[in-house]
Amino acid sequence: MKNDIDTLLPIRSRSGWRFALALFGALFALLVLTRPYFFGDVVEYTLETVALADHGSPDIRLSDIARAHQVAPQVSGVFQLLETDMRAGKQDVYAAFVRGKGGDVYSVHFFGYPALAVLPYKLFELLGVPPFKAFQVVNYAAVFVLGLALLRFFGSGRRAALGLLLFLLCGGALYLNWTSPECVSAACLLAGLLFYLSGAPLAAGLLAGLAGQQNPTIVFFFGFAPLLKLYLDWRPGVGLAANLKAQLTRANVLGLAVGVVLFSLPLLFNLYEFGVPNIIARKFSDPGLISATRLVSFFFDLNQGMVLILPGVLAALALWGWKHEGTSKRALGLFALCLLFVLALIFPAMAVLNWNSGAQGVMRYGFWAAMPLLLVLLLRLRASTRWPAGLLLGLLLAQGAATLHAASYSYVEFSPLARFALAHANRWYHPEPEIFAERMARNDDYIEPHKIYVSAEWHKALVNPGGAHVDELLCGAGKVLAPDTRMVESTRDWYYIDGAIACRPDPNRTERYGSAQFESGNGIALAEGWSQVEHNGGAWDGVWSVGPRSKLVIAAPSGFRAATLSLQGMYFEGNHRTRVRVNGTDLGWLSLDRLPHFALPANSAGKELVIELAHEAPHSPGSGDTRALAFFLRSAELREGR
Known about the structure:
642 residues, alpha+beta, six-stranded antiparallel β-sheet, transmembrane, transmembrane helix, membrane
């Protein structure tokens, strides 16, 4: 074989059956010795499997929940939440489920993965084996198919075994026993690439279509796999048309078409039942969350970034010597294509609401999206007649260490590496805000702008001036942050304060009104367009606006010349801004939930303030509540000189 990245043809192995038999035996032994790990989207997939096994349809029924209580008591509490909502006849049931057009309840996740688990589930029920080991069977089957793809790719059982070991050390071992489809998506994506590049497009299309059913951005396989093969098969001197024609074979087109059809099944089901191509994207994503901060976090975060699980792979690609100039250039081009593939896989994923989602070390998206980069190393290994022993040993040691590190902590605590960075390089490490807030508090919760997140251990704080009364919360009443406080901007108006928090007396007088003053009328009057004052704790102490207009009247405190006003609160869905008039002066449309303070008209200093609010889109929340809501007011604050 040439020491080059050359046209890929299948390499037949005389001992292939021995490799397949040994791999089957090893996986069977693992299946017997290990237990399923109930994590990830376990509630949805377990209920879907029970439903498909018991009545052959994916709609969730109360009888399915009763059965799931018996066979998966580990998550019984969450089953109960859904059961309570269903018995009450609620339209909006527990968050991970949704009603279809006929009123039946479905998981937001497509049922392709559970459908694969139905047969082993029913078999294990008959044999008295824990039935949800069926998910392990599906995961292990995907790994077995990947082993066959590697055998075809390398033509050697030993090399295929090493390739499979690399897959396991690049996240496969971390997700192998999960009751979620991450291992299937990663193994099928990589196997699909290997099959397509080595001339088995039908197998490739089937695997890619299956992988994309649960993780839809894998649809980019159907563009990048042909592009990668075109690049690897490129024949200089014959022109673009001839090279393209060589790729447009009947087998390639058929394989890709079959894969696209398989991938499209969830889209068609979602359109039929929910009226949208992807109900998860509708309910649990926000394109406004896509940012450079999340992109950097995806690759380099020290808690769940992709780099955590690829250190040896990336180092091997960088350090492996290149003897021929042409080889080096082609390899760089291949790496660039695969990196572009990774970016395509992850870009839509950056819109998910729950960035610090349940993970084992590297985030779930990062695991399967890393497969194109592992492919680059596998191609490099295939093109080499001799594999350098020292480099391979270093590669396996680095990947093994990365796997042990990733397995050593929970997704609601900082990784050992992140803790080291916070302790020794605090000013250089600023995780995506959700990661810092949730891991510091050791819970999986929503990050809220009205809160501050302070770590006394590392002298680091995360604040959002648009939603939190920062100075008072950090320094106490009558004090503000010192002017030399080191602040670093993050994303979505969050910023970090690095170092010990230094405060000073507030040089400007502040008058603040909260729910107690709203209710008593002490200094502030809810003149019109407001509901009853609510005391629900924390962010939900305040009052809702009602109708298209609301009015506040703030008395002029003695000797106080207000320069700025802040109206702290949050909007009801569909509302993002408010038209504000103060003493007859129109201040325009303002996003009150994102604006710390806004200047008052010059002629208002020392006078009573009449504040008129015109709301953008007030409407009823439904469920018997007829109020037309728009803005929830938590507090109002006047300041001098700011």
